[in-house]
Automatic annotation (TrEMBL), chains A, B:
SUPFAM superfamilies: Putative DNA-binding domain (SSF46955). It comes from Paragemmobacter ruber. It comes from the Bacteria. The keyword Nuclease does not apply. InterPro entries: DNA-bd_dom_put_sf, MerR-type_HTH_dom, MerR_fam, Tscrpt_reg_MerR_DNA-bd. One of its GO terms (molecular function) is DNA binding. The keyword Aminoacyl-tRNA synthetase does not apply. This is MerR family DNA-binding protein. Residues 1-70 form the HTH merR-type domain. Keywords: DNA-binding, Transcription, Transcription regulation.
Length: 146, 146
DNA sequence: CCTTGAAGCTATAGTTGCTAGAGACATTAG
DNA sequence: CTAATGTCTCTAGCAACTATAGCTTCAAGG
């Protein structure tokens, strides 16, 4: 049996994060010691490692919630899980495309600036006028996340 | 003179967002009409477009605050502005590297799954065990953003 | 002139995924 | 036995908005 600190160390998750996951129902309520401290077994460690890994791959907690409940039904077909993964892949590809455009614009900005006064700074100038950009990088939709 | 709605439409920013920017001091307090409604001129539109464009390029509001106060001093040298842009470029490059790794792992997952039961699903399996991954994609640090 | 509907106002709370702090109890090493 | 660490609950905060409620103001049509 592991205390919350040991569990966190094993899974690479901070202690408050574990309590947070329990609070939002991603982890089941842990059993308690005589002194009211949480105790975890191997199953909890596996579940937490699953969550951590999925987070590292950029899945939202909502997606992970679904993935976990799917993985609790091993006899069901896996199409739903695969669909979640494919949606995540699509999301990553969208972000990648956007970031690639951003990188191009930022590089252009910093390269073009000759480094004089603010009044002549290409960075400031481009920021004030999107028509100076070479691509249409504008926020098409979603955001955030790893 | 523009009402807040017209201003938002011109700059591509939602009305509550404009009020939010004013609240956190990114936009100066707007003048008011006789009936207490905000009124904006060309300068406010330019400033808002600047903010919007910088946001579209992934700058944080804190960075934008600094960029705006720099652009208010046109005689100063532009090194500080360029440094902010280069930092943003570096950040974008870091995210790009991470997302590229994530994309590779997600592709592997969905390609390898044969589509049977959850018990045999490669997606679920890989999520539970990072050692099945081909790269070390783990969250090295920062996150979030465009 | 008056009514109606859209647009504006303030203030508050919710979103996502945590993280930090306060103040009290539990456990463990020396 | 004491001191240091670990854990407990609860609350509040981060970014950057978004949404809601309940009001007032404005512009256009009849
Ligand atoms: Zn410059
Ligand atoms: Zn642009
Ligand atoms: Zn599958
Ligand atoms: Zn992995």
């Amino acid at each position: 049996m592991l205390t919350i600190g040991k569990l966190g160390a094993q899974a690479g998750v901070k202690v408050p994060t574990i309590r947070y996951y329990e609070q939002i129902g991603l982890l089941p309520e842990a059993g308690r010691s005589a002194g009211n401290q949480r105790l975890y077994g191997r199953k909890a460690l596996e579940r937490l490692a699953f969550i951590r890994h999925a987070r590292d791959l950029g899945f939202t907690l909502e997606a992970i919630r679904d993935l976990l409940s799917l993985s609790d039904n091993p006899e069901q077909p896996c199409v739903a899980a695969d669909a979640i993964a494919r949606a995540q892949l699509a999301e990553v590809e969208r972000r990648l495309a956007r970031l690639t455009a951003l990188k191009a614009e930022l590089e252009r900005m910093v390269v073009q600036c000759a480094g004089g006064k603010i009044a002549d700074c290409r960075v400031i100038e481009v920021l004030g006028d999107h028509s100076l950009c070479s691509t249409d990088h504008r926020h098409p939709e979603s955001e955030a996340g790893p």
